[in-house]
Amino acid sequence: MKKQQPGGGECPAPRPPAAAAAAGGGPGQGGGLMKRRPLSLLPFLSLRDYVFCMATLLLFCTGSLFYQLNGGPPHFLLALRQCLGNSTYLDDHGPPPLKVLPFPSQVVYNRVGKCGSRTVVLLLRILSEKHGFNLVTSDVHNKTRLTKNEQMELIKNISTAEQPYLFTRHVHFLNFSRFGGDQPVYINIIRDPVSRFLSNYFFRRFGDWRGEQNHMIRTPNMRQEERYLDINVCILENYPECSNPKLFYIIPYFCGQHPRCREPGEWALERAKLNVNENFLLVGILEELEDVLLLLERFLPHYFKDVLSIYKNPEHRKLGNLTVTVKKTVPSPEAIQILYQRMRYEYEFYYYVKEQFHLLKRKFGLKSHNRKPSPRPEFFIPSPLETEEPINDEEEDDEKWLEDIYKR
Q1: What's the alpha-carbon Rg for the chain, to the nearest Å?
Q2: How many CB atoms lie within 10 A of CB 362?
Q3: Residue 398: is its pLDDT beyond 60?
Q4: Which phi and psi angles does 369 have, rounded to 5°?
Q5: Crossing angle of helices 344-363/333-342, nearest 10°?
Q6: What is the distance between the alpha carbons of residues 267 and 197, in angstroms, rounded to a whole number?
Q7: 204 and 290 share a domain?
Q8: Which entry of 111, 160, 308, 364 is 20 to 30 Å from 386 by CA?
Q9: What pLDDT is stored for residue 70 in this prediction?
Q10: % pLDDT > 70, the chain
Q11: Residues annotated as region Disordered (predicted)?
C-alpha cells in the first residue's frame, strides 16, 4: 500500500539496502546519482578523449587570438598546414621561404625625376650602411614605361632581392599583385609641376654644380640652338618639349603602366589618386622635405632612423648643394600662365597630394614651416594643349654621380 503525502502525492517505497549499495549509494553517501551525472553527459568519451578535446579547443582559441593580434595566422598554424598535407612540390623542393620580418621589409621608391630624388638617394646610401638594409638600384635610368614582359621580369628581380630591401628607380607604378607578387610598400616625393619642369629644362642643357661639362655628357646629341633655346620661346611657340604630352609627367608615376596613364585626362588623374590612397605609404612634397623625412622616420624607422640629423649635417649639405641645377631663369608671367593651363591635371594631382600630406602632418602633430602657402593657379583653358609630334622618354638621372662623390 502506497503512503500518501500531505500534498496528495505518493512516496516511493524504500529500497532495500542491497539495491542502494548496487546503485553506488549507501548510508551516509546520499549522492550516488549526483556522482554519475557528469559522466552521463558524455557517455561515449573516456577521460583521455575528454582531455584531448579540451586541449584542442584551447589550442584553437590561442591560435585565433594570435591571428587577430598579429593581423594574420601565426607561424605554427602555417607549419601545421604543411603537416596536414596541404603542401606543394615547391613547398618541399623549392627555395626556402623568405623570412617574415616584423616591419615592412619590401619598400619601393619609384622616384619622380627632378623631385629631390638625388638628395634622397644619397641619404639612402648612408642609411643602408648604417642600418644594414639592402639598397637595390637599377642600371636602367631612362625607361619608365615597360612592356608586360619587362614588368614581369622587373617584379621578379625585385621580389627575390634579399630582405629587408629598398628598391629605387625612375619607373611608373608597378602592380605587383597583378603578376602574383606581394605588393610592396611604396613611397615617393613630388613638387610643384612648373618648378619641376623648369628644373628639368635647364638641367638637361646646363647640368648642375658637379661640373661645368656634365650636361654635355648627358645630352651629347643636343644641337646648340636647342641647348640655348629661350624658355619663353619654347613655351609661347608651343615647342614639343614645352607642350603635352611631355608636360604630363608626374601623374603616370602613380597611375601605372596602362596606356591610358600616358594620356592627359581625368581617367589617369583618378587612377593616380586611387593608387596613392591604396598603395603608397607616403607621398611627400619636396617644398617640405624636412617634414617628409620626419614622417618617413616615423613610419619606416628601420630604414630612415636619424635621417633628419644626417640631412642637416654640414657635410651632407655640402654634397647636396652640388646637385642644384645651374643657369635657371624664370619665364615671363605670360609663359607661366600658359604652363599652368597645359598642366591642369598635374596641378590637380599635386594639390590633392599636398592636401593629403598636410592632413597626415596634422595627425602626427607636425606644423608646416612654410611662410606662406602658394596660391593655386587659375586655369583659363578647359583642356591641355597637345602636340602630335612623338616625344622620346626623358633622359633621367643615374647613380654614377654618387660614385664620384664617394671618391672625393
Answers
A1: 35
A2: 11
A3: no
A4: -95, 0
A5: 80
A6: 22
A7: yes
A8: 111
A9: 55
A10: 64
A11: 1-31, 368-408
Predicted model pTM: 0.68
Query: Which residue numbers are catalytic?
Result: 170
Residue 183: all three cell numbers together? 605588393
Contact 150, 210 (CB under 8 A): no
What residue type is assigned to position 276 of the chain?
V
pLDDT of residue 14: 53
Q: Do the beta carbons of residue 338 and residue 235 sit within 8 Å?
A: yes
Categorize the per-residue pLDDT at 75 as very low, low, confident or very high, splitting at 50, 70 and 90.
low
Using left for φ > 0, alpha for ψ between -120 and 50, and beta otherwise, residue 281 falls in alpha
C-alpha 402: how far from its chain's center? Answer: 25
230, containing H or E segment? none
Are residues 56 and 152 both part of a single domain? Answer: no
Per-residue DSSP letter, 111 = P
Q: Are 109 and 122 in contact (CB under 8 A)?
A: no
Q: Identify the domain containing residue 200 by its residue range.
A: 106-407
Q: In terms of domains, do 347 and 305 share one?
A: yes
**Measured between alpha carbons, how far is 245 from 391 in angstroms, rounded to an integer?**
8
- Alpha-carbon torsion (8, 14, 19, 25), positive or negative: positive
As for how many domains the chain has, the answer is 2
Residue with cell 610598400: 185
What does the alpha-carbon distance between residue 313 and residue 320 come to, in Å, rounded to a whole number? 11
